[in-house]
Amino acid sequence: MTTEYDLSPEDFADTAKAVVNACAEADTTATRIALLADAGLTGILASDSSGGMGLPVDFAVPVLHAAGAGMLAAPLLETMLLAQAFSGTRDDLATAIAIGHTKVTIAWNGELDGSAGTVDRAPLAEDCDAVLVFRRDGSAILVTLGESAEVLADDTLDLERPEARVVITAAEGPVLSAETVTELQRTAQILRSALILGAAEDSLERACEYAQDRRQFGKTLVSYQAIQHHLARQCLAVETIRNSIARSLSPHCEMPVDAARATFIGATGLGANTAETAIQIFGGMGYTWDVPLHRHLRFVRTLAAQGKAAELLDNVAQQLLSAENNKKELQRAS
Amino acid sequence: MTQTAAVASERPSPETAGDNARAWLDANLPQTLREDILQEREPSIAELSEWESKLHKAGIIGATWPKQYGGGDLGLRAHLDISREIGRTPMPESVNSIGKELAGPIILAVGNERQKAEYLPAILEMRNIWCQGFSEPNAGSDLAGLRTRAEKTGDGWVINGQKIWTSGASKSSHCLLLARTGSVEDRHRGLVLFAVDTSLPGVDIREIKSIDGARHFCEVFFNDVVVPEADMLGSPDQGWAAATRVLSIERATNRMHRAWRFENQLQHLVSACAENPATRRLVEHDYARPLAEVAVNIELLKGHVETLVGSLIDGNEIGPRGSLPKMFWSEAHQDFSKLALEIVSRFPPDMSDPLRAVKRRMEDIYIKARAETIYAGTTEIQLGIIAKRILKLNWER
Predict the structure, then answer these.
(1) By the 8 A CB rule, do A106 and A81 touch?
(2) How confident is the model at residue B376, as a pLDDT?
(3) Residue B105 domain-assigned?
């Protein structure tokens, strides 16, 4: 793909893969964020004035794909989004986030109505300095974690990016406008889909490799058409996610907002199904802790919850059944 | 609505092709051809041909074909824009889709100048309707096993064999025939493509009644049919290569409008239900989420179509990736057809004409959708293509 930039999104894929592999050897979230920041990956979306690269979302897709495939244990999605969101209004803060000095996350569930309350689904909050909290009026506030914002470990499906609850007694900090939050949420839908794509593709690759090695009744598993078809269906699922991400980011997409929402909703179902099928193909081995497919499955399901896939599907239904929508159709029919 | 706008005098530019198509279709689709209102009778082939001829004159059909053969000389992007509008319009499917989406592109790829000049404008102007003579009783999805033989004679070829599932053959003037020159053991080698005039002596066409009650399918017998050398498309051995190349593009671009037609069907169901308190309650209370899932699948299908079109525009080969949209569409559309059938089966007995129209349309879609996972390569064939040629799984070791 050629772009108006010197680089193409694909140029980031190899770097991202190498850095994610290096992160797998690192001991702490802070070290991993530092490695990502050193490679410039946390600031891809942040503006030049914030020490970032000011690149469009397309360029972040291969990075998050690599993060999903490599089970990255860092709040990379949240870091990228917040470095971008504070660019222009708080360049000092955006820079600190992009270079990894301020480690941030986002509490994806719950809203503050006033200055106190509880929010949750904040990945790796225990290792971060601040958490973005959504507010009832549509805006959001970046709260420093400490005495007035206490992090509590929560039950969590995701093993790489354990979620935490945050109890806030006095919310103070830099604020994002409602418009910026809306944009952040939309970008998050695409970038989460990229994480899911990575997880799904890695699940599929592992299942293909296993099916071609493992022998039963004197033949490899993949010799059985049932297994071939299982794998082919998961390939279709992975390509569906990939193509839908590409369409959502294409300048030719007629309705990018609807497309991004559908991409994310679709990715959650297809991605989870791919990990589930991979577990099935591994048989008993698939159910063991050491085969990491369950990690992908946990991650995808957690991303679905953080992005509120079920509520988004309800929004699609509301839009489809809305009077305005139907009126338009009836007018055309008459 | 009446036919108010005249046939467009100027062909659309790439930038306005979609908008022009939208305006023209809104103004010109006759009430008698609308699929979203209750019709008293099926339109005739003559009516459908006339409609399609007008679509061509308006620049809506043949947009990507060269101007010298009656096309619009537009690119794939404009074709996609036009296809969206065709899909959004509840109009009948083409009765000459084989001509426009298979025979035409193959002739453009391997035909000589005379063949292009003779056949291509005739397809667009609906003077010639084509059928596809590929499948045989023992070579359905496995085309390499076909047995219809072409033997060289002094001034042409003698064809003997049988084709089956030949859609629309009884209404076609020409058949795009795939035959072999050697033995069946040669598999992909020695396959030849012909443009066969179906009125030639020895061509015997018999209709087969399909599960939707139509007599669209046919079996076609070739008994010592003499085909002139001039009607061979490409050289011997080029046949299979041309067919597979075109088929792979066909799976990606053929009926490009179907994602938007699918959307039109969903919108028709929902908007008709919204007009009646009982059916509105029904969809809102019992089917909101399943219908939303259909809407999501339609967006995902658009992702396949638009991304593959983008890839073709960038000059990439589609190859086996053409199987992806075909497979996704056919299964998602079948799922929708089951859901839609369940919804319309719960309509009240005193339903209005708009509800009766949507009920009839959804019942028809349900039955016809059974074919979608069978034709153009069954689901099982598509899965095999994906496993072997995209995943490159090796089951020999």
Answers:
(1) yes
(2) 82
(3) no
Last residue within a domain, chosen from B69, B93, B117: B93
Would you tell me which residues 200-259 of chain A have a C-beta closer than 8 angstroms to some C-beta of chain B? 208, 211-212, 220, 222-223, 228-229, 231-233, 235-236, 239-240, 242-248, 250, 252-254, 258-259
Does residue B85 lie within any of the structural domains? Answer: yes
Classify the phi-psi angles of B11: left when phi > 0, otherwise alpha if psi is within -120 to 50, otherwise beta. Answer: beta
B222-239 b/e (C-beta count within 10 Å ≥ 16 → b): beebebeeebbbbebbbb
3-state secondary structure of B223: strand
User: Does the domain spanning A180-317 belong to CATH 1.20.140.10?
Assistant: yes
Q: How confident is the model at residue B241 (pLDDT cuts 50, 70, 90)?
A: confident
Predicted pLDDT at B5: 35
Instruction: Please tell me which of the candidates A231, A258, A332 has its beta carbon nearest to residue B391.
Output: A231
- The rounded Cα A130 to chain-centroid distance in angstroms is 19
> Using the beta-carbon criterion (under 8 Å), do A220 and B321 form an inter-chain contact?
no
DSSP count for chain A of H helices, then E strands: 11, 9
Rounded to an integer, what distance in angstroms lies between the CA atom of residue A16 and that of residue A321? 42
Is residue B146 located within the same domain as residue B195? Answer: yes
Both tokens of B346, joined, read: 């719960």
Pick from B176, B189, B102: nearest CA to B145 = B189
For A243, which of B84, B267, B307 is closest by C-beta distance? Answer: B307
**Band of the pLDDT at B248, cuts 50, 70, 90?**
low
Please determine, looking at this structure, whether the domain spanning A7-102 carries the CATH number 3.30.950.10: no
SS3 A237: helix
A3 touches chain B (CB under 8 A): no
**CB pair distance less than 8 Å for A250 and B306:** yes
Q: Residue B195 pairs with which residues in a beta bridge?
A: B176
**Residue for token digits 């297809």?**
A270
* A89, A90, A95, A97: CA torsion to nearest 10: -110
Residue-averaged pLDDT of chain A: 95
Read off the tokens for B169. Answer: 């053959």
Q: List Cβ<8 Å contacts ≥24 apart for A272-277.
A: A272/A297, A272/A300, A272/A301, A272/A304, A273/A234, A273/A237, A274/A200, A274/A203, A274/A204, A274/A234, A274/A237, A274/A238, A275/A199, A275/A200, A275/A203, A275/A300, A277/A203, A277/A207, A277/A230, A277/A233, A277/A234
Q: How many Cα atoms sit within 13 Å of B162 on the Cβ side?
A: 10
Cα A29 from Cα A50, distance rounded (Å): 22
This model of the complex carries an ipTM of 0.95
Segment B120-126 mean pLDDT: 98
Domain range for B146: 130-237
The class level of CATH for A104-176 reads: mainly beta
Domain edge (last residue) among B211, B237, B263: B237
pLDDT band for position A82 (cuts 50, 70, 90): very high
Cβ-based contacts of A229 with chain B (< 8 Å): 380, 383, 387
Considering only CB atoms, which chain B residues are within 8 Å of A323? Answer: 274
**Which of B289, B304, B393 lies at the smallest CB-CB distance from A212?**
B393
Q: Which residue in the set B291, B306, B397 is minimally distant from A317, CB to CB?
A: B291
**What DSSP line would sit under B298-330, residue for residue?**
HHHHHHHHHHHHHHHHTT---GGGGHHHHHHHH
C-alpha A5: how far from chain center: 24
State the first-to-last Cα distance of chain A, in angstroms, to the nearest integer.
Answer: 44
Chains A and B: how many Cβ contacts under 8 Å? 146
CA–CA distance, A7 with B277 (Å, rounded to integer): 56
Q: What pLDDT was estimated at residue B189?
A: 76
